[in-house]
Amino acid sequence: MSNVILVASGKGGTGKTMFSVNLGCAISSFGKKVVIVDMDMGMRNLDMYLGLEGQVVYDTYDALKGICNTKQALIKDDNFKNVHIMAASPINQQEEVLEEDAGKLLEELKSKFDYIIIDGPPGIGKNIELVSPFIDIGIVVLTPDYATIRDADSVDSFLLRRRVKHRYYVVNKAVLDLEKRGLEVKLDEIDTIMKSKPLGAIAYDENIHISTNIGVPIVSKPDAYITKNFLKIAKRIMEV
Ligand SMILES: Nc1ncnc2c1ncn2[C@@H]1O[C@H](COP(=O)(O)OP(=O)(O)OP(=O)(O)O)[C@@H](O)[C@H]1O
Ligand SMILES: [Mg+2]
Hints:
By secondary structure, the protein is an alpha/beta fold. It has eleven helices and eight strands. The chain is globular and about 55 Å long. Bound molecules: adenosine-5'-triphosphate and magnesium ion.
């Protein structure tokens, strides 16, 4: 089983945190234990998208540097019983995090969870570099415009150089009507540009925007077409 997943992007705001949350909840609905780790230090969002912001005491940085033990930094989601999260530090870390700190934390999380989803910062920063040796699956979230696709391809090339075994991309905020009218980059064309494999496409939908804003993942709605889409994506990941 390939169980350490990095969710990355070239540009900011493509939907990494939204994707990490809903993928994690979708995988958990198959009875798997999931932890979603916010590595976007200084830009904490993950806890908000699950409505857990009131429960953060210790964060990923504290767990990485041994300021608390791993269990103390884990927050349980009451709505998705197989999901835990680790929030990012609200400020940038004072002391340097080392690759061995990341390796130790991930090893411990592997012993407790079936899947570890790392919600990364945009681009290729220090935190992405130090977790890269431990990643089994790299997923780059992009939106269908040329600049974002080019930056996504650069991040994917970095994952390739770092020998990440399984590399995918997800097209988010796709607008079918614009694609049909030739006003948005077509999925086929994105696939010719990207060197990794397509994992799925997620439509631009105001309900997704509302869901992150109110802190209730969109996959909480069992019959929504977006939920079905996420369940399909989750199944693909579990087959890797
Ligand atoms: N498919 C979608 N349809 C509509 N809105 C979306 C969709 N995906 C994400 N959003 C919205 O876009 C915004 C950015 O999403 P998100 O925070 O997940 O991006 P991110 O890549 O994690 O950003 P950052 O790079 O800052 O970490 C949020 O307001 C979210 O609700
Ligand atoms: Mg984010």
